[in-house]
Design brief:
The chain is of the alpha+beta class and about 375 residues long. The chain has helices at about 5-20, 55, 85-110, 120-130, 135-140, 150-170, 175-185, 195, 205-210, 215-225, 230-240, 260-275, 285-295, 295-300, 300-310, 375-385; strands at about 35-40, 320-325, 330-335, 345-350, 355-360, 370-375.
């Protein structure tokens, strides 16, 4: 199983190899390069709590290295942003995972997380700053493999996706920080139900009813935090309410539900479907997107449009595709508002030493080339091994 620590080691190794690699002449690999392409060579519930207003009231808006195991750390087009590099983004991601793991474990063991909540908005501010720069290196993090207990990666991925949608809906930075914080902490009550949600099978109806209690636990935990917006406790309690009143714990409808809840719930659906669980495989991005589109009544047309534009579905960063030219590669960058024309890194050849010949093609600048389909499992296997 691929672990986050292994990724970090690979990143460090790549940096060392990059420092040793001699510079190629500017005209290297320029022959037969289609328009838009940049050639390169790279190495391989129970009853709700008694107090009602804070939780049920609607809150208004405030102003390649290695192909083994299917893992490949992409090399996004770094000159497209003045923000964090790929390596820096991965370091931040791992740092936040360790923070979330520590925080969740304290809650699970009834240890008071004294002032740990100060870190939450600080981390989310870093993400928001980078995502406002349209930094593909941050968005690409959601395609990284999960820890054995997926809940930590899932919390961070949902925060990243939610911030992206918030940007697409016009939120300002303070709102994005609160939105990301709510997404990161929203399911913190789930740590009390680890033995249930980590089952290597679908949950029984009895287990599903039991796990619904986590919204009350989340509210009670977050309400004690002193360094985050109190609105976040309300959001956590409402997180599984649905537009049509079919959600829980209170069956709220429409505008009675905080808009952040609607954004986070759709981000939650997409990320959950896009990653494997103990009892099922991950589904293709277009299938996950269909689930988002079906949820348009939850988020609304504006929110769904923002989701598609910002995540560049149905071809998000990290998915493997084949082009009309017959070439195969991985999506490594976005063209905001051009969901069908992302930036793709074409893999020519993977050598025995793990190095590969690649070139980057921006489909927005190559009008005669387009994505034909996703790679099948057999094609992906051939590409990776």
């Amino acid at each position: 199983m691929v672990r986050m620590s292994d990724i970090l080691k690979k990143v460090e190794q790549r940096k060392l190899e990059g420092n040793k690699r001699p510079q190629e002449p500017d005209n290297a690999h320029q022959e037969n390069t289609p328009a838009g392409a940049t050639p390169s060579v790279t190495p391989a519930s129970s009853q709700p709590p008694s107090r009602e207003d804070p939780r049920t009231a609607h809150s208004r808006q405030s102003e390649p290295m290695n192909f083994k195991h299917g893992l490949r750390i992409s090399r996004p087009v770094l000159d497209r942003t003045s923000g964090m590099s790929n390596e820096e983004a991965i370091h931040l991601y791992i740092k936040v995972i360790e923070f979330v793991k520590n925080l969740y474990n304290k809650i699970k063991n009834n240890i008071s997380p004294i002032e740990d909540d100060k870190e939450v908005p600080l981390f989310m501010e870093q993400f928001a700053d980078q995502q406002l720069l349209n930094n593909d290196n941050i968005v690409g993090l959601i395609s990284l493999p999960s820890e054995k207990d997926y809940i930590y990666n899932h919390a961070i991925n949902v925060a990243i996706i939610s911030i992206e949608v918030g940007i697409g809906m016009g939120y300002k930075k303070p709102e994005l920080v609160d939105l990301g914080s709510a997404a990161l902490l929203g399911d913190i009550g789930m740590v009390k139900y680890t033995d249930i949600y980590n089952q290597a099978r679908p949950l029984s109806e009895e287990e599903k009813e039991q796990i619904k209690n986590h919204t009350s636990v989340s509210f009670e935990v977050i309400e004690k935090f002193k360094n985050i917006n109190p609105r976040i406790a309300t959001i956590a309690y409402q997180l599984h309410e649905r537009q049509d009143g079919s959600g829980y714990p209170c069956g709220l409808k429409g505008d009675s539900i905080d808009e952040f809840v609607k954004i986070i719930s759709v981000a939650d659906i997409y990320d959950a479907l896009s990653h494997p669980r103990a009892y099922r495989e991950a589904i293709e991005p277009y299938q996950a997107l269909n689930s988002v589109i079906k949820a348009k009544e939850i988020l609304g047309p504006r929110g769904v449009r923002a989701f598609i534009e910002r995540l560049c579905c149905p071809y998000p960063i990290g998915c493997y595709v084949k082009l009309s030219s017959g070439e195969k590669g991985m999506v490594i960058g976005r063209n905001i508002g051009e969901a069908f024309k992302p930036i793709v890194e074409i893999i020519y050849n993977v050598n025995k030493d793990g190095s590969e010949m690649t070139r980057i093609i921006d489909l927005k600048k190559a009008p005669t080339v387009y994505i034909k389909d996703y790679l099948t499992k057999s094609e992906l296997k051939d590409l990776m091994y």
